[in-house]
Amino acid sequence: MKKILTLFAVVGLIVFSSCEGDQGPPGESVAANVFEVEKVNFSATANSDFDFNFKSRIFPGDVVLVYRYAGFSPTTNLDVWTILPDSHYYTDGGLYFSYKFDFTQDDVKIYTEGLDLIANPIPADLRTNQIFRIVVVPGNNPIVTTAKSINKADYSDYYAVIKKYGIDDSNVKKLN
């Protein structure tokens, strides 16, 4: 009798452990987004900033990367995007000024921070009509769980990031 009960217990354990229940509702799809903001102007002689709103909240675990347009490369036939923070130095190696940023779930602030800007103002080509691209990379969303990737993109390379996250570069959302 004990052998039969043991057999039923083992068979029952195998049967119930391999059962699957109903599939739950599909999770919300989280995709990386790219925003572009143009005509950003900073002060030549003082630390200054530019704020913009995402128009919708990003998830708490998302990561924001900001790139500044640094020109066009005829060698690669691509635009050159430099990741922030981006520091500029005097020829003697001393810090001149930096582009930096911070973000919340609602907005991003891009700002300049420099030393002695009254005596050494930031040149017009580095402070007027600047173009920035903001990439929102999906992170840990408390509502949707995603697998961690061990193959992380080189975040300093704008093109590696958009390739890694399958972003359509022609579909950048303009914010101004």
- Please state the CA-atom Rg, rounded to the nearest Å: 25 Å
As a percent range, the share of helical residues equals: 10-25%
- The strand order across the widest sheet is 4-3-8-1-9
Shape: globular
Largest sheet: 5 strands, mixed
Q: Please state roughly what percent of the residues sit in beta strands, choosing from under 5%, 5-15%, 15-25%, 25-35%, 35-45% or over 45%.
A: 35-45%
**Average pLDDT reading:** 79
Q: How are helices and strands ordered from N to C?
A: HEEEEEEEEHE
Structural class: mainly beta
Total number of helices? 2
Head-to-tail CA distance between termini: 79 Å
Total beta-strand segments: 9
Uncertain runs are: 10-30
Overview of this structure, please?
This protein is mainly beta. Helices cover about 15% and strands about 40% of the residues. It has 2 helices and 9 strands; from the N terminus they run H-E-E-E-E-E-E-E-E-H-E. Strands 4-3-8-1-9 form a 5-stranded mixed β-sheet, with no helix packed on it. Strands 2-7-6-5 form a 4-stranded antiparallel β-sheet, with no helix packed on it. A hairpin with a 4-residue loop joins strand 3 and strand 4 (about 80-85). It is globular, with a radius of gyration of 25 Å. The protein starts with a helix and ends with a strand.
